[in-house]
Amino acid sequence: MSLTGKTILITGASSGIGLATARRLAKEGARLFLASRNGEALAELAMELSNCAALPVDMSDVAQVKAMMKEAARLGGFDGLVNNAGRAYEATVENTDLAAMDYIFRLNLTGPVLAMQEALPILRARGGGSIVNISSGTTLMRLPGYGVYSSSKRALNGFTLTAREELKHENIRVSLVYPRLTATAFGQNKVPSGMAGGVPGRPAADYTKGDPPEHIAGLILKALLEGGAEYFAHPDMQKL
Question: Which of 89, 146, 149, 231 is an active site residue?
Answer without folding.
Answer: 149
